[in-house]
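Class, carefully examine what follows:
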Amino acid sequence: MLYRRTIVTLLFVITYYVVVFKLPFSLFVAFISLVVVTSLWELYAMIDGKRLKACRWLGLAYAASLPMLRALESVRLDITLDRLGQLTGELSSGILVLFLLVAMTAQTFKKEYGTAVEDLATTCWGAIYVSWFLSYIIPLRGLPGGPWVVTLLVAMVKINDIFAYLVGSHLGRHKFFPRLSPKKTWEGAVAGIAGSVVGAMIVLPFLRQHVPEMTMIHAVSLGVIMGILSPVGDLCESLIKRAKGHKDSGVLLLGTGGLLDGIDSLVFCTPLFYYFMWWRFGG
């Protein structure tokens, strides 16, 4: 297991560097759209059993379009850190309303209405959960110094996972949430918070070249907040898997699970990180 995690981590680091630091903004947006669609496909596959018939293609179309609309909003505003509060989201909000209207209308054409409410909830909630949450990363990447802003977020989330796994698997004795994730321990959770703080401190010197207002207090505060929220994001996805009888969301990540398994905490933390940056530096 540790060997597979190491291979996946190395592949992630290489891919991450190329995508976040080397690709132009437009290709970064396209990559995020691909990640969103793949993750949503996995989510629909887990939830949408024989009884439910979610409108998958409608949800996937919405999910693919949202990162692009976020990008258009950011470019049109010429996004900077002090303008985050001005990113009102007319395009993304409009397409959300259209998506909900079409999704509701589509249910009226079904032959059987017995699961219409569940189908509608699956279609809409799944698309919003994955695409709306993760698409907050688009304006963050569009900021001056955006790659380092995104790296701060990703470092806190991923190093949290590494510290929690290493400490929890070797020193963990007290179960954290056995009903949903039997392997999680309180020792691992505390180590994960420390890992998020470490991740923030590693990135801070590079980030301050672009965001000089970011202080050590901000970094530590963010590390603690993301360190607490990151395992919650993982538990929320575990809830879905447990409820639907799945061990993993898919098989894409070399035996360690699906893509959604790899980004569940990031999906959960991204909007909260965005709003922290807006609240503290948005002007």
About this structure: The radius of gyration is 19 Å. Strands lie at 175-177, 181-185. The chain is about 75% helix and 5% strand.
